[in-house]
Amino acid sequence: MASPPPPDLRTSERQFTRSVLAGLCLLGLVAVAGPLLSYRGDVLEMREQFRSRLEREGRVYAEALGLHIQLLKSELSRVAMGVGPELQEGRAIEDMQDLTAPDIGLFRQGLLLLDVSGTVRWSEPLSRIPSDVLRGREWFQRILQHPAPVVDALEPGSSTFVVAVPVVRERRTLGMLVGLIDASTGLPGSRSLSRHLELAVLNREGDIFLPSRPPPWATTPSLARKVDALLARGGQEVETAQGTLFAWATVVPGTELRLVLAADETTTVAAIRERLLAQLLVLAGLQVGTLLLFSLHWRRVYRLFLEMERRAAEKETMAALGSAAGLIAHEVKNSLNGLKVATGMLTPGEEQAFAVRALRGQIDRLAHLATSLLHFGNPPRVQRIPVDLPHLVREVLEGLRVLPEAEEVHLTAHLPEALDIQGDPLLLATALDNLVRNAMEAAVAAKDLGRLTTPEVSVRVRQEEDHAVVDVEDNAGGPPEGFEARLFEPFVTSKPKGVGLGLSMTRRAVEQQGGRVSFTRIPGGSRFTVILPPPDAAPPADSQEPPHERPPALHR
User: Fold this and answer.
1) Who is most buried in 189, 227, 249, 261, counting CB within 10 A?
2) Sheet arrangement for strand 456-464
3) Residue 332: left if φ>0, alpha if ψ -120 to 50, beta else—which one?
4) How far is CA 510 from the centre of its chain?
5) Do the beta carbons of residue 469 and residue 506 sit within 8 Å?
6) Cα–Cα distance between 23 and 25 in angstroms, integer?
7) Which segments show compositional bias classed as Basic and acidic residues (predicted)?
């Protein structure tokens, strides 16, 4: 009977499995680490490129806006030179009207000529802003203190900005020329920028100059303080209500305006993230496929390894059992020979006939068992010769009719006229003898247990394609459930008094001739099928010299 693997083998199996799984996990980690490190490097590089691009585009916008404002200052300064000493329009009136022209003017919002008290001397369109209101503006006081052009919000919180230049005569400030502009006049940055980029231009107080519709993050009250930090650091991440943005700020050349350019970095790395996910999905698919293939291959190799171990252990066991069985059988045969000689000297009368016949039958059975044990450890070689299979089956059945069970079993045979094969007749007879003997004994045992009334055994010989097939059926109910997988193992039997060598030796005898034996559970019983190769089939590799003695037919 097959025994479970020893503890050392089970420990080795577990260690091997853990090692294989650890190796696969390590390979998986190494395979995943590559894309992750590549993704991290790509993200860092993309962020660096993104921030460099943000800084570069911010400087371009700032330079463009600075040049435009410088143009506005230059035009106002040129017109201011034509204003009369008493702030009379004089020859500057036409130039001022050109600056406010609806289609081509630079100051379409309007143009003001103010004196030092804030009184409007000339305006286009007509303006009625009180002088005390203008006089209170910061930009107005700044020009009076430092006669230099100024760009600032018209009033706190206003989106209308002013470009003001002083009117100076003989180093004395007489007034100022003020142009009104807003984001709707086509200034650089007043229109939407590149995708994902948002721009804002503001003064020191946080009044938005550009664009006309500022982004949400540019309307926060603390934006001016954040811009001061951005100017000090060049650029940094800024938390907004819409999320985290990377912002970069610079001063517009020639002004005190600040330009802020911001964008969401996550949109720039979305493509990289999608590519990484695609790589990880492909990698995961490859890993799963590799694991499945490896598992299937490892399972097959592991089963082969277990089968080889089982066969090696079986050979060792058979060798040990063969040696022990040979010693035991030799001693038993010596005693049986003496008993056989003694019974042969008896002259049975009518009263002793049954006892003598039973005694001789048991001596023959024990001799048969001893001879089988002797041949178990040293199986004979195969000799392939022409064999008439139906004739061989008839001889086997005739030999079994002398058994005590033959009187109770209804034995039927379905044999063709002729069916020639190539094989060893002695090994074939042994195999068929064991199968039919097993069927007869099982049927009689089932009758004794009350499971059936008429034991029946059927033997059928037929040809299936090029193969010869022998079916042996009985109505004994079959072996116990779950026992089929161990039917052909040596020394494994379901019979209380069986030895467990009959089916094992049957399978060995058939396989030595290139055939195979199978078991099928049928309604009410069992069917053993022997399939033999065609006559022209190549002999098995282990077929060598002829056997020296017929192997005995041992019932299971």
Assistant:
1) 261
2) 410-414, 456-464, 467-474, 525-532, 516-522
3) alpha
4) 46
5) no
6) 5
7) 545-556
Phi, psi of 534 (to 5 degrees): -65, 165
Distance CA 531, CA 507 (A): 11
**DSSP 8-state secondary structure symbol assigned to residue 534:** -
Amino acid, res. 331: E
Beta strands in 32-155 (DSSP E): 110-115, 120-124, 150-153
What are the CA-CA distances from residue 440 to residues 397, 401, 409, 523, 526 (Å)? 11, 10, 6, 17, 12
pLDDT digits (tens, 9 = 90+) for 291-350: 788 778 877 887 888 788 877 877 777 677 667 666 776 667 677 777 777 776 666 665
What the block records as the tokens of 539 is 């002999």
Residue of 280 and 420 predicted with greater confidence? 420
C-beta separation of 62 from 261 below 8 A? no
User: Can you read off the two tokens belonging to residue 522?
Assistant: 């049928």
CB 410, CB 456: distance < 8 Å: yes
Tokens encoding 359: 């005694």
Q: How many CB atoms lie within 10 A of CB 480?
A: 8
Dump the DSSP string for 336-376. HHHHHHHHHT----TTTHHHHHHHHHHHHHHHHHHHHHHHH
Per residue in 200-253, pLDDT tens?
A: 888 888 888 888 788 888 888 777 788 888 887 777 787 777 678 888 889 999
What three-state secondary structure class fits 463?
strand
d(CA 222, CA 237): 15
* C-alpha span between 513 and 534 (Å, rounded): 11
Helical pair 7-80 and 265-344, crossing angle rounded to 10 deg: 170
Contact 527, 520 (CB under 8 A): yes
Q: What sign does the CA torsion over 432, 436, 439, 442 have?
A: negative
- Check residue 496 and give its pLDDT: 55
Contacts 24+ apart (CB under 8 A), 70-77: 70/253, 70/254, 71/106, 72/106, 72/107, 72/163, 72/179, 72/181, 73/149, 73/151, 73/163, 73/165, 73/254, 75/99, 75/106, 76/149, 76/163, 76/164, 76/165, 76/177, 76/179, 77/149, 77/165
Q: How far is CA 104 from CA 77, 81, 108, 164, 410, in A?
A: 18, 21, 8, 20, 124
Which domains, ranges and CATH numbers included, belong to the chain? 42-263 (3.30.450.20), 379-532 (3.30.565.10)
Structure tokens at 54: 């943000």
d(CA 169, CA 89): 15
